[in-house]
Amino acid sequence: MGNKDQADLIFINGNILTMDEEMSQANSVVVRNGTVQFVGDQNEALAFEGEQTEIIDLQGKTMMPGFIESHIHPTLYGLNLLKLDCRPENTPSIDALLKKIEEAVQETPDGEWVIGWGWDDSKLLEKRAPTRWELDRVAPDHPVFLTRTCAHMAVVNTKALKLSGVSAETEDPDGGHIERDPQSGEITGLLQEKAQGLIALPKEGVENLVAGMKLAQKDFAKWGITTIHDMSTQTAEMQVYQHLLNEDALTVRVRPWIWAIAQNDWTGHLDEVLSLGIRSGFGNDMIKIQGMKFMLDGSVGGRTAAVAEPYENDSSKGILYSEVDDVAPAMEKSLSAGLRVAIHGIGERAIEVAIQAFEKANEKVDITSMRNRIEHCALPTENHLKRMKKLELIAASSIGFLYHIGDSYMNNLGPERMKRVYPHKSFKEYGLVAPGNSDLPVTGGNPWTGIYAAVTRKTVSGQVLDTTQNISVEDALKAYTNDAAYSSCEEKTIGVIKPFAKADLIVIAEDPFKVDAEQLKEIEVEQTYMDGNLVYAKEENKPDLDRNKKLERVES
Length: 556
Prior knowledge:
Layout (H helix, E strand, L loop, with lengths): L8 E4 L2 E3 L7 E2 L1 E5 L2 E6 L1 H4 L8 E4 L4 E4 L1 E6 L1 H8 L2 E2 L8 H13 L7 E6 L12 H7 L5 E5 L4 E4 L1 H6 L12 E5 L6 E7 L12 H17 L2 E9 L1 H12 L6 E7 L10 H7 L14 E5 L28 H13 L3 E6 L2 H15 L10 E4 L5 H10 L2 E4 L2 H14 L1 H4 L5 H6 L17 H10 L16 H7 L2 H5 L18 E4 L16 E6 L2 E5 L19
Parallel strand pairs: 1-6, 2-7, 8-15, 9-10, 10-11, 15-16, 16-17, 17-18, 18-19, 19-20
Antiparallel strand pairs: 1-4, 2-3, 4-5, 7-21, 11-12, 12-14, 13-14, 21-22, 22-23
Helix pairs in contact: 2-6, 6-7, 9-10, 10-11, 12-15, 15-16
Protein backbone atom coordinates (compact mmCIF):
# COMPACT_ATOMS: atom_id res chain seq x y z
CA MET A 1 0.00 0.00 0.00
CA GLY A 2 1.36 3.41 -0.91
CA ASN A 3 2.85 5.68 1.71
CA LYS A 4 0.00 8.17 1.20
CA ASP A 5 -2.41 5.62 2.69
CA GLN A 6 -0.44 4.91 5.86
CA ALA A 7 -2.34 5.64 9.06
CA ASP A 8 -1.28 7.72 12.03
CA LEU A 9 -3.41 5.69 14.44
CA ILE A 10 -5.16 2.34 14.24
CA PHE A 11 -7.54 1.42 17.05
CA ILE A 12 -8.24 -2.32 17.20
CA ASN A 13 -10.13 -4.79 19.36
CA GLY A 14 -12.78 -2.26 20.38
CA ASN A 15 -16.51 -1.97 20.64
CA ILE A 16 -16.97 0.92 18.22
CA LEU A 17 -20.27 2.77 18.54
CA THR A 18 -20.12 4.73 15.31
CA MET A 19 -23.48 6.56 15.73
CA ASP A 20 -23.66 6.06 11.95
CA GLU A 21 -26.87 4.38 10.80
CA GLU A 22 -25.09 2.79 7.84
CA MET A 23 -22.60 0.98 10.10
CA SER A 24 -23.70 1.07 13.70
CA GLN A 25 -20.84 -1.04 15.10
CA ALA A 26 -17.30 -2.10 14.20
CA ASN A 27 -14.15 -3.19 16.03
CA SER A 28 -11.47 -0.98 14.46
CA VAL A 29 -10.90 2.63 13.43
CA VAL A 30 -8.13 4.05 11.24
CA VAL A 31 -7.08 7.71 11.65
CA ARG A 32 -4.91 9.79 9.32
CA ASN A 33 -4.25 13.55 9.45
CA GLY A 34 -6.90 14.06 12.13
CA THR A 35 -9.60 12.37 10.05
CA VAL A 36 -11.20 8.94 10.18
CA GLN A 37 -9.92 6.99 7.18
CA PHE A 38 -11.58 3.61 7.73
CA VAL A 39 -14.08 1.98 10.11
CA GLY A 40 -14.71 -1.74 10.15
CA ASP A 41 -12.94 -5.07 10.59
CA GLN A 42 -9.56 -5.36 12.31
CA ASN A 43 -7.82 -7.26 9.49
CA GLU A 44 -8.79 -4.60 6.96
CA ALA A 45 -7.80 -1.84 9.36
CA LEU A 46 -4.29 -3.25 9.85
CA ALA A 47 -3.70 -3.01 6.10
CA PHE A 48 -3.25 0.73 6.68
CA GLU A 49 -0.27 0.18 9.01
CA GLY A 50 2.96 1.93 8.16
CA GLU A 51 6.32 2.42 9.87
CA GLN A 52 5.09 5.40 11.90
CA THR A 53 1.61 4.07 12.69
CA GLU A 54 0.57 3.75 16.32
CA ILE A 55 -1.59 0.70 16.93
CA ILE A 56 -3.76 1.01 20.03
CA ASP A 57 -5.43 -2.05 21.49
CA LEU A 58 -8.74 -0.95 23.03
CA GLN A 59 -8.94 -4.27 24.87
CA GLY A 60 -12.66 -4.57 24.32
CA LYS A 61 -13.46 -1.09 25.59
CA THR A 62 -16.05 1.10 23.89
CA MET A 63 -15.17 3.92 21.52
CA MET A 64 -17.71 6.49 20.37
CA PRO A 65 -17.70 10.00 18.87
CA GLY A 66 -16.71 12.90 21.09
CA PHE A 67 -19.65 14.67 22.70
CA ILE A 68 -20.99 17.95 21.36
CA GLU A 69 -22.22 20.38 24.01
CA SER A 70 -24.76 22.40 22.05
CA HIS A 71 -25.44 25.15 24.61
CA ILE A 72 -22.95 26.34 27.22
CA HIS A 73 -21.15 29.50 28.34
CA PRO A 74 -17.51 28.35 28.33
CA THR A 75 -15.70 31.53 29.30
CA LEU A 76 -18.22 32.22 32.06
CA TYR A 77 -17.59 28.72 33.39
CA GLY A 78 -13.86 29.33 33.10
CA LEU A 79 -14.13 32.55 35.08
CA ASN A 80 -16.17 30.72 37.70
CA LEU A 81 -13.30 28.29 38.14
CA LEU A 82 -11.23 31.31 39.19
CA LYS A 83 -13.89 32.48 41.67
CA LEU A 84 -15.41 31.37 44.96
CA ASP A 85 -17.15 28.01 44.47
CA CYS A 86 -20.52 28.17 46.25
CA ARG A 87 -22.13 25.10 44.72
CA PRO A 88 -24.27 23.03 47.10
CA GLU A 89 -21.69 20.26 47.41
CA ASN A 90 -19.28 22.83 48.84
CA THR A 91 -21.71 25.07 50.74
CA PRO A 92 -24.77 22.98 51.73
CA SER A 93 -26.18 25.63 54.07
CA ILE A 94 -26.20 29.41 54.44
CA ASP A 95 -23.89 29.07 57.46
CA ALA A 96 -21.42 27.11 55.32
CA LEU A 97 -21.74 29.72 52.58
CA LEU A 98 -21.08 32.55 55.03
CA LYS A 99 -18.05 30.73 56.43
CA LYS A 100 -16.62 30.40 52.93
CA ILE A 101 -17.12 34.12 52.29
CA GLU A 102 -15.53 34.95 55.65
CA GLU A 103 -12.47 32.92 54.69
CA ALA A 104 -12.25 34.72 51.34
CA VAL A 105 -12.56 38.10 53.06
CA GLN A 106 -9.55 37.33 55.23
CA GLU A 107 -7.46 36.84 52.08
CA THR A 108 -8.85 39.87 50.22
CA PRO A 109 -7.79 43.50 50.83
CA ASP A 110 -10.53 45.80 52.16
CA GLY A 111 -12.67 47.32 49.44
CA GLU A 112 -11.95 44.62 46.86
CA TRP A 113 -14.72 42.42 45.50
CA VAL A 114 -15.54 38.92 46.69
CA ILE A 115 -17.28 37.19 43.78
CA GLY A 116 -18.75 33.71 43.92
CA TRP A 117 -21.09 31.47 41.97
CA GLY A 118 -23.20 28.33 42.14
CA TRP A 119 -25.45 28.70 45.20
CA ASP A 120 -28.87 27.08 44.87
CA ASP A 121 -31.59 27.92 47.38
CA SER A 122 -33.51 24.74 46.51
CA LYS A 123 -30.54 22.70 47.76
CA LEU A 124 -29.49 24.84 50.72
CA LEU A 125 -30.47 23.50 54.13
CA GLU A 126 -32.58 26.61 54.76
CA LYS A 127 -34.35 26.39 51.34
CA ARG A 128 -33.94 30.11 50.77
CA ALA A 129 -31.47 32.63 49.40
CA PRO A 130 -29.01 34.36 51.72
CA THR A 131 -29.74 38.03 52.46
CA ARG A 132 -27.54 41.08 52.26
CA TRP A 133 -27.65 41.44 56.05
CA GLU A 134 -26.20 37.95 56.46
CA LEU A 135 -23.47 38.77 53.94
CA ASP A 136 -22.81 42.04 55.79
CA ARG A 137 -22.01 40.13 58.99
CA VAL A 138 -19.01 38.41 57.41
CA ALA A 139 -18.10 41.05 54.80
CA PRO A 140 -18.87 44.56 56.04
CA ASP A 141 -15.96 46.16 54.17
CA HIS A 142 -15.94 44.10 50.96
CA PRO A 143 -18.50 44.27 48.15
CA VAL A 144 -19.93 40.75 47.63
CA PHE A 145 -21.66 39.40 44.52
CA LEU A 146 -22.81 35.77 44.46
CA THR A 147 -24.44 34.39 41.30
CA ARG A 148 -27.09 31.69 41.65
CA THR A 149 -26.48 28.44 39.75
CA CYS A 150 -28.95 29.46 37.02
CA ALA A 151 -27.13 32.79 36.41
CA HIS A 152 -30.54 34.50 36.36
CA MET A 153 -30.24 35.80 39.94
CA ALA A 154 -27.57 37.05 42.29
CA VAL A 155 -27.37 38.13 45.91
CA VAL A 156 -25.24 41.09 47.01
CA ASN A 157 -24.35 42.80 50.26
CA THR A 158 -24.83 46.42 51.33
CA LYS A 159 -21.32 47.46 50.27
CA ALA A 160 -21.99 46.26 46.70
CA LEU A 161 -25.31 48.13 46.57
CA LYS A 162 -23.74 51.38 47.82
CA LEU A 163 -20.81 51.18 45.40
CA SER A 164 -23.30 50.68 42.57
CA GLY A 165 -25.63 53.49 43.62
CA VAL A 166 -28.54 51.14 44.27
CA SER A 167 -30.86 52.24 47.07
CA ALA A 168 -34.40 51.75 48.33
CA GLU A 169 -35.49 54.39 45.81
CA THR A 170 -34.06 52.48 42.83
CA GLU A 171 -36.84 51.20 40.60
CA ASP A 172 -36.94 47.77 38.98
CA PRO A 173 -35.33 47.84 35.53
CA ASP A 174 -37.36 46.54 32.59
CA GLY A 175 -37.07 42.77 32.61
CA GLY A 176 -35.64 42.67 36.12
CA HIS A 177 -36.67 42.68 39.76
CA ILE A 178 -35.11 43.95 42.98
CA GLU A 179 -36.47 41.87 45.85
CA ARG A 180 -37.67 43.88 48.85
CA ASP A 181 -38.69 42.82 52.34
CA PRO A 182 -42.54 42.75 52.37
CA GLN A 183 -42.71 44.40 55.82
CA SER A 184 -39.97 47.03 55.72
CA GLY A 185 -39.66 47.54 51.96
CA GLU A 186 -35.86 47.32 52.26
CA ILE A 187 -33.79 45.67 49.55
CA THR A 188 -32.96 42.09 50.60
CA GLY A 189 -29.94 41.82 48.32
CA LEU A 190 -31.58 39.40 45.85
CA LEU A 191 -31.49 40.70 42.28
CA GLN A 192 -33.36 38.89 39.51
CA GLU A 193 -32.65 38.92 35.78
CA LYS A 194 -31.73 42.38 34.44
CA ALA A 195 -31.50 43.82 37.94
CA GLN A 196 -28.13 42.08 38.20
CA GLY A 197 -26.85 44.60 35.66
CA LEU A 198 -27.32 47.40 38.22
CA ILE A 199 -24.24 46.21 40.08
CA ALA A 200 -20.97 47.85 39.04
CA LEU A 201 -18.85 44.72 38.89
CA PRO A 202 -15.22 45.06 37.84
CA LYS A 203 -14.70 44.15 34.18
CA GLU A 204 -12.78 40.96 33.51
CA GLY A 205 -9.66 41.29 31.39
CA VAL A 206 -9.02 39.02 28.43
CA GLU A 207 -6.07 37.50 30.30
CA ASN A 208 -8.46 36.24 33.00
CA LEU A 209 -10.79 34.83 30.36
CA VAL A 210 -7.87 33.01 28.73
CA ALA A 211 -6.72 31.56 32.06
CA GLY A 212 -10.25 30.44 32.87
CA MET A 213 -10.82 28.93 29.43
CA LYS A 214 -7.67 26.86 29.77
CA LEU A 215 -9.05 25.40 32.99
CA ALA A 216 -12.45 24.86 31.41
CA GLN A 217 -10.91 22.96 28.48
CA LYS A 218 -9.46 20.43 30.89
CA ASP A 219 -12.96 19.65 32.16
CA PHE A 220 -14.36 19.44 28.63
CA ALA A 221 -11.74 16.86 27.71
CA LYS A 222 -12.35 14.94 30.94
CA TRP A 223 -16.07 14.79 30.11
CA GLY A 224 -15.39 13.70 26.52
CA ILE A 225 -16.62 16.97 24.99
CA THR A 226 -14.83 17.82 21.75
CA THR A 227 -17.15 20.55 20.38
CA ILE A 228 -18.92 23.33 22.27
CA HIS A 229 -21.53 25.93 21.30
CA ASP A 230 -20.88 29.24 23.07
CA MET A 231 -24.34 30.78 23.44
CA SER A 232 -23.33 34.29 24.51
CA THR A 233 -20.30 35.15 22.40
CA GLN A 234 -19.09 38.75 22.52
CA THR A 235 -15.89 40.59 21.59
CA ALA A 236 -13.83 39.24 24.50
CA GLU A 237 -14.84 35.64 23.84
CA MET A 238 -13.84 35.86 20.17
CA GLN A 239 -10.50 37.28 21.25
CA VAL A 240 -9.99 34.42 23.70
CA TYR A 241 -10.72 31.71 21.15
CA GLN A 242 -8.48 33.27 18.51
CA HIS A 243 -5.71 33.77 21.07
CA LEU A 244 -5.83 30.11 22.07
CA LEU A 245 -6.00 28.99 18.44
CA ASN A 246 -2.94 31.07 17.56
CA GLU A 247 -1.12 29.57 20.56
CA ASP A 248 -2.09 26.09 19.38
CA ALA A 249 -3.77 25.79 22.79
CA LEU A 250 -7.40 25.40 21.69
CA THR A 251 -8.31 21.78 22.44
CA VAL A 252 -12.05 21.92 21.74
CA ARG A 253 -13.97 23.03 18.65
CA VAL A 254 -15.90 26.24 19.30
CA ARG A 255 -19.19 27.16 17.66
CA PRO A 256 -19.98 30.79 18.62
CA TRP A 257 -23.50 32.20 18.74
CA ILE A 258 -23.05 35.96 18.90
CA TRP A 259 -25.11 37.95 21.41
CA ALA A 260 -27.54 39.92 19.27
CA ILE A 261 -29.08 42.81 21.23
CA ALA A 262 -28.13 44.67 24.43
CA GLN A 263 -29.51 42.69 27.36
CA ASN A 264 -28.54 41.56 30.86
CA ASP A 265 -25.62 43.98 30.90
CA TRP A 266 -24.27 42.34 27.70
CA THR A 267 -23.56 44.36 24.57
CA GLY A 268 -25.52 43.51 21.42
CA HIS A 269 -23.53 42.92 18.23
CA LEU A 270 -26.16 42.32 15.56
CA ASP A 271 -25.55 45.53 13.64
CA GLU A 272 -21.78 45.07 13.71
CA VAL A 273 -22.02 41.50 12.39
CA LEU A 274 -24.48 42.55 9.69
CA SER A 275 -22.27 45.45 8.59
CA LEU A 276 -19.31 43.11 8.21
CA GLY A 277 -21.34 40.72 6.06
CA ILE A 278 -20.55 37.66 8.17
CA ARG A 279 -22.84 34.70 7.56
CA SER A 280 -23.42 31.45 9.44
CA GLY A 281 -20.60 28.97 8.74
CA PHE A 282 -17.84 31.59 8.54
CA GLY A 283 -14.60 30.32 10.06
CA ASN A 284 -12.71 27.05 10.10
CA ASP A 285 -12.97 23.60 11.67
CA MET A 286 -11.92 24.97 15.07
CA ILE A 287 -13.93 28.22 15.26
CA LYS A 288 -17.06 28.47 13.12
CA ILE A 289 -19.70 31.21 13.47
CA GLN A 290 -23.21 29.83 13.98
CA GLY A 291 -25.46 32.89 14.09
CA MET A 292 -27.12 35.29 16.50
CA LYS A 293 -28.44 34.62 20.01
CA PHE A 294 -31.57 36.27 21.43
CA MET A 295 -33.21 35.89 24.84
CA LEU A 296 -36.85 36.05 25.94
CA ASP A 297 -37.22 34.94 29.57
CA GLY A 298 -35.50 33.67 32.70
CA SER A 299 -35.31 30.33 34.49
CA VAL A 300 -37.74 27.90 36.11
CA GLY A 301 -35.45 27.45 39.12
CA GLY A 302 -35.56 31.19 39.80
CA ARG A 303 -39.28 31.42 38.90
CA THR A 304 -38.47 33.97 36.21
CA ALA A 305 -39.26 31.86 33.11
CA ALA A 306 -42.39 33.23 31.38
CA VAL A 307 -44.85 30.39 32.04
CA ALA A 308 -48.52 30.26 31.02
CA GLU A 309 -49.91 29.51 34.47
CA PRO A 310 -48.60 30.71 37.85
CA TYR A 311 -45.83 28.85 39.61
CA GLU A 312 -46.83 26.47 42.40
CA ASN A 313 -48.01 28.33 45.53
CA ASP A 314 -47.37 31.65 43.82
CA SER A 315 -49.17 34.25 41.72
CA SER A 316 -46.16 34.97 39.52
CA LYS A 317 -45.90 33.84 35.90
CA GLY A 318 -42.27 34.91 35.51
CA ILE A 319 -40.71 37.65 33.39
CA LEU A 320 -41.11 37.99 29.61
CA TYR A 321 -38.31 40.20 28.29
CA SER A 322 -39.77 41.09 24.91
CA GLU A 323 -42.98 40.89 22.90
CA VAL A 324 -43.12 39.72 19.28
CA ASP A 325 -42.97 43.22 17.80
CA ASP A 326 -39.87 43.98 19.87
CA VAL A 327 -37.78 41.02 18.78
CA ALA A 328 -39.14 39.99 15.36
CA PRO A 329 -37.58 42.85 13.30
CA ALA A 330 -34.08 42.12 14.61
CA MET A 331 -34.52 38.39 14.01
CA GLU A 332 -35.73 39.06 10.46
CA LYS A 333 -32.65 41.22 9.75
CA SER A 334 -30.43 38.40 10.94
CA LEU A 335 -32.20 35.66 9.01
CA SER A 336 -32.39 37.71 5.81
CA ALA A 337 -28.62 38.20 5.97
CA GLY A 338 -27.95 34.46 6.23
CA LEU A 339 -27.37 34.45 9.97
CA ARG A 340 -29.18 31.69 11.81
CA VAL A 341 -31.06 32.52 15.00
CA ALA A 342 -31.06 30.82 18.39
CA ILE A 343 -33.55 32.28 20.84
CA HIS A 344 -33.83 31.47 24.54
CA GLY A 345 -37.40 30.46 25.38
CA ILE A 346 -38.19 28.36 28.46
CA GLY A 347 -41.78 29.06 29.49
CA GLU A 348 -44.82 28.70 27.22
CA ARG A 349 -45.22 32.47 26.82
CA ALA A 350 -41.61 32.86 25.71
CA ILE A 351 -41.81 29.91 23.31
CA GLU A 352 -44.96 31.43 21.79
CA VAL A 353 -43.17 34.75 21.18
CA ALA A 354 -40.21 32.90 19.64
CA ILE A 355 -42.39 30.92 17.24
CA GLN A 356 -44.45 33.94 16.23
CA ALA A 357 -41.25 35.88 15.51
CA PHE A 358 -39.94 33.01 13.34
CA GLU A 359 -43.31 32.80 11.56
CA LYS A 360 -43.19 36.52 10.78
CA ALA A 361 -39.68 36.18 9.36
CA ASN A 362 -40.70 33.15 7.31
CA GLU A 363 -43.30 35.26 5.51
CA LYS A 364 -40.44 37.23 3.92
CA VAL A 365 -37.62 34.69 3.70
CA ASP A 366 -37.79 30.90 3.71
CA ILE A 367 -36.13 29.85 6.95
CA THR A 368 -37.14 26.18 6.92
CA SER A 369 -33.72 24.92 5.79
CA MET A 370 -31.65 27.11 8.12
CA ARG A 371 -31.86 24.99 11.28
CA ASN A 372 -32.82 27.84 13.57
CA ARG A 373 -33.20 27.00 17.24
CA ILE A 374 -35.29 27.60 20.33
CA GLU A 375 -32.92 27.34 23.27
CA HIS A 376 -34.00 25.23 26.26
CA CYS A 377 -37.55 24.89 24.93
CA ALA A 378 -38.65 23.55 28.31
CA LEU A 379 -42.45 23.77 28.17
CA PRO A 380 -43.73 23.64 24.58
CA THR A 381 -47.39 22.83 23.99
CA GLU A 382 -48.58 20.44 21.28
CA ASN A 383 -49.51 23.47 19.21
CA HIS A 384 -45.96 24.75 19.61
CA LEU A 385 -44.49 21.42 18.51
CA LYS A 386 -46.61 21.37 15.33
CA ARG A 387 -45.62 24.91 14.40
CA MET A 388 -41.95 24.26 15.21
CA LYS A 389 -41.97 21.27 12.85
CA LYS A 390 -43.57 23.34 10.10
CA LEU A 391 -40.66 25.80 10.40
CA GLU A 392 -38.13 22.95 10.92
CA LEU A 393 -36.91 24.58 14.13
CA ILE A 394 -34.49 22.77 16.42
CA ALA A 395 -35.42 22.25 20.07
CA ALA A 396 -32.11 22.89 21.83
CA SER A 397 -33.18 21.04 24.95
CA SER A 398 -31.51 21.49 28.33
CA ILE A 399 -32.22 17.91 29.31
CA GLY A 400 -29.30 18.06 31.76
CA PHE A 401 -31.42 20.35 33.94
CA LEU A 402 -33.65 17.42 34.91
CA TYR A 403 -30.85 15.67 36.79
CA HIS A 404 -29.20 18.66 38.43
CA ILE A 405 -32.13 20.97 39.20
CA GLY A 406 -35.14 18.80 38.42
CA ASP A 407 -36.24 18.84 42.05
CA SER A 408 -36.69 22.61 41.89
CA TYR A 409 -38.61 22.18 38.63
CA MET A 410 -41.01 19.81 40.36
CA ASN A 411 -41.43 22.22 43.28
CA ASN A 412 -42.04 25.17 41.00
CA LEU A 413 -44.15 23.55 38.27
CA GLY A 414 -45.90 20.60 39.92
CA PRO A 415 -46.32 17.02 38.62
CA GLU A 416 -48.75 17.74 35.75
CA ARG A 417 -46.48 20.22 34.00
CA MET A 418 -43.48 17.94 34.55
CA LYS A 419 -45.00 15.52 32.04
CA ARG A 420 -44.10 17.92 29.25
CA VAL A 421 -40.87 19.47 30.52
CA TYR A 422 -37.98 18.95 28.06
CA PRO A 423 -40.29 16.51 26.26
CA HIS A 424 -37.86 14.39 24.28
CA LYS A 425 -40.36 11.68 23.48
CA SER A 426 -42.72 14.32 22.08
CA PHE A 427 -39.89 15.99 20.18
CA LYS A 428 -39.20 12.66 18.46
CA GLU A 429 -42.88 11.99 17.76
CA TYR A 430 -43.19 15.36 16.02
CA GLY A 431 -39.96 14.83 14.06
CA LEU A 432 -38.06 17.60 15.82
CA VAL A 433 -34.29 17.38 16.22
CA ALA A 434 -33.48 17.98 19.89
CA PRO A 435 -29.78 18.14 20.85
CA GLY A 436 -29.15 17.92 24.59
CA ASN A 437 -27.24 20.41 26.70
CA SER A 438 -26.36 21.42 30.25
CA ASP A 439 -26.17 25.23 29.88
CA LEU A 440 -22.92 25.00 31.86
CA PRO A 441 -22.28 26.64 34.33
CA VAL A 442 -26.01 26.69 35.11
CA THR A 443 -25.72 22.94 35.75
CA GLY A 444 -22.89 20.41 35.67
CA GLY A 445 -21.38 19.87 32.25
CA ASN A 446 -20.86 16.10 32.18
CA PRO A 447 -23.05 14.81 29.30
CA TRP A 448 -23.59 11.45 31.02
CA THR A 449 -25.88 13.09 33.57
CA GLY A 450 -27.98 14.51 30.73
CA ILE A 451 -28.07 11.13 29.00
CA TYR A 452 -29.11 9.49 32.28
CA ALA A 453 -31.88 12.05 32.82
CA ALA A 454 -33.20 11.61 29.29
CA VAL A 455 -33.50 7.86 29.81
CA THR A 456 -34.72 7.74 33.44
CA ARG A 457 -36.27 11.20 34.04
CA LYS A 458 -34.67 11.10 37.49
CA THR A 459 -33.07 13.88 39.51
CA VAL A 460 -29.88 13.89 41.56
CA SER A 461 -32.01 13.07 44.63
CA GLY A 462 -33.48 10.02 42.90
CA GLN A 463 -36.91 11.57 42.42
CA VAL A 464 -38.76 10.36 39.30
CA LEU A 465 -40.11 13.49 37.64
CA ASP A 466 -42.39 11.70 35.19
CA THR A 467 -42.75 8.46 33.23
CA THR A 468 -44.06 10.13 30.08
CA GLN A 469 -41.06 11.57 28.24
CA ASN A 470 -38.41 8.85 28.67
CA ILE A 471 -36.35 8.01 25.59
CA SER A 472 -34.02 5.16 24.69
CA VAL A 473 -30.28 5.09 25.36
CA GLU A 474 -29.68 5.31 21.61
CA ASP A 475 -31.77 8.46 21.27
CA ALA A 476 -30.14 9.98 24.36
CA LEU A 477 -26.66 9.37 22.91
CA LYS A 478 -27.78 10.88 19.61
CA ALA A 479 -28.82 14.04 21.45
CA TYR A 480 -25.15 14.65 22.33
CA THR A 481 -23.67 13.42 19.03
CA ASN A 482 -25.71 13.18 15.79
CA ASP A 483 -28.45 15.63 16.72
CA ALA A 484 -26.01 18.15 18.15
CA ALA A 485 -23.90 17.91 14.98
CA TYR A 486 -27.03 18.46 12.88
CA SER A 487 -27.69 21.64 14.82
CA SER A 488 -24.47 23.14 13.43
CA CYS A 489 -24.90 21.63 9.94
CA GLU A 490 -21.94 19.30 10.55
CA GLU A 491 -23.56 15.87 10.83
CA LYS A 492 -21.17 14.42 8.24
CA THR A 493 -17.99 15.49 10.02
CA ILE A 494 -18.56 15.44 13.80
CA GLY A 495 -20.73 13.44 16.17
CA VAL A 496 -20.13 10.31 14.10
CA ILE A 497 -17.35 7.82 13.37
CA LYS A 498 -17.15 7.20 9.63
CA PRO A 499 -14.73 7.91 6.78
CA PHE A 500 -13.99 11.62 6.27
CA ALA A 501 -15.35 12.56 9.70
CA LYS A 502 -13.09 14.29 12.21
CA ALA A 503 -11.21 11.96 14.53
CA ASP A 504 -12.93 13.32 17.64
CA LEU A 505 -13.17 10.15 19.70
CA ILE A 506 -13.70 9.03 23.27
CA VAL A 507 -12.96 5.72 24.99
CA ILE A 508 -15.09 4.42 27.87
CA ALA A 509 -14.82 1.14 29.76
CA GLU A 510 -18.55 0.33 29.69
CA ASP A 511 -20.96 -0.17 26.82
CA PRO A 512 -23.85 2.25 27.51
CA PHE A 513 -26.23 -0.13 25.71
CA LYS A 514 -25.41 -2.97 28.10
CA VAL A 515 -25.16 -1.34 31.52
CA ASP A 516 -28.15 -0.80 33.79
CA ALA A 517 -29.76 2.60 33.23
CA GLU A 518 -28.75 3.64 36.75
CA GLN A 519 -25.10 3.20 35.79
CA LEU A 520 -25.24 5.63 32.87
CA LYS A 521 -24.49 8.61 35.10
CA GLU A 522 -21.44 6.79 36.53
CA ILE A 523 -19.73 6.18 33.17
CA GLU A 524 -16.36 7.90 32.97
CA VAL A 525 -14.34 8.83 29.94
CA GLU A 526 -10.93 7.12 29.90
CA GLN A 527 -9.45 8.87 26.88
CA THR A 528 -10.45 11.78 24.67
CA TYR A 529 -9.02 12.41 21.20
CA MET A 530 -9.62 15.61 19.27
CA ASP A 531 -8.41 15.65 15.65
CA GLY A 532 -6.65 12.38 16.44
CA ASN A 533 -4.65 13.98 19.26
CA LEU A 534 -4.94 12.63 22.78
CA VAL A 535 -6.15 15.55 24.90
CA TYR A 536 -7.19 13.62 28.02
CA ALA A 537 -6.40 10.33 29.71
CA LYS A 538 -7.40 9.11 33.16
CA GLU A 539 -4.66 9.16 35.77
CA GLU A 540 -3.52 5.59 35.16
CA ASN A 541 -3.11 6.45 31.45
CA LYS A 542 -1.17 9.68 31.92
CA PRO A 543 2.00 8.39 30.20
CA ASP A 544 -0.04 8.04 27.01
CA LEU A 545 -0.30 11.83 26.84
CA ASP A 546 3.30 11.91 25.59
CA ARG A 547 2.55 11.86 21.86
CA ASN A 548 6.25 11.38 21.09
CA LYS A 549 6.24 8.05 22.88
CA LYS A 550 5.11 5.13 20.76
CA LEU A 551 2.15 3.36 22.31
CA GLU A 552 2.67 -0.34 22.83
CA ARG A 553 2.22 -2.15 19.53
CA VAL A 554 0.23 -5.32 19.41
CA GLU A 555 0.83 -8.34 17.27
CA SER A 556 -1.17 -8.25 14.09
